[in-house]
Task: inverse folding
């Protein structure tokens, strides 16, 4: 069950604890192609199924940054924020892409609150490690330490 945060103190009290898991999302070729269009990254390994079939992964793979971008989708699914006036994406610290995501794979986010501190302007800055898991995979697609500021 995912936690519910309704105040700065709620967030601060959760450091070191696991958060919930998101729903699974399928990474199909259409999503990969749309991401390629949005980023102008049309490398064949992502968008050419015929050539990619003979490549190192045997199929097209998602962009690493596509896996990272899904963190924005996963965060609201792994923890609930109520009474929130505003949330701000402050950035990321460490980001890694341990495993390629083949087209047709399913991904989900798994969270852990690794740090939190009050901000000078009355909010809380939370560092949440999001591990983007590949269904049935031995290693994750992405691990990112996200930094968000929440104002209740």
Result:
């Amino acid at each position: 069950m995912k936690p519910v945060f309704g105040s700065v103190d709620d967030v601060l009290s959760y450091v070191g604890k696991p958060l919930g898991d998101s729903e699974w999302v399928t990474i199909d070729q259409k999503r990969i192609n749309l991401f390629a269009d949005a980023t102008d990254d049309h490398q064949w390994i992502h968008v050419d199924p015929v050539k990619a079939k003979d490549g190192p992964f045997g199929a097209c793979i998602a962009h690493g940054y596509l896996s990272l971008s899904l963190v924005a989708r996963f965060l609201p699914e792994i923890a609930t924020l109520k009474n929130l006036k505003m949330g701000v994406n402050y950035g990321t610290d460490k980001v890694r892409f341990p495993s390629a995501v083949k087209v047709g794979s399913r991904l989900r986010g798994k969270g852990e609150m690794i740090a939190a501190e009050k901000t000078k302007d009355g909010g809380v800055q939370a560092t949440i490690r999001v591990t983007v898991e590949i269904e049935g995979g031995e290693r994750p697609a992405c691990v990112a330490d996200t930094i968000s500021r929440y104002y209740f």
Summary: The mean pLDDT is 97. Residues 30 and 83 are 36 Å apart (CA to CA). The two ends are 22 Å apart (CA to CA). DSSP finds six helices and eight strands in the chain.
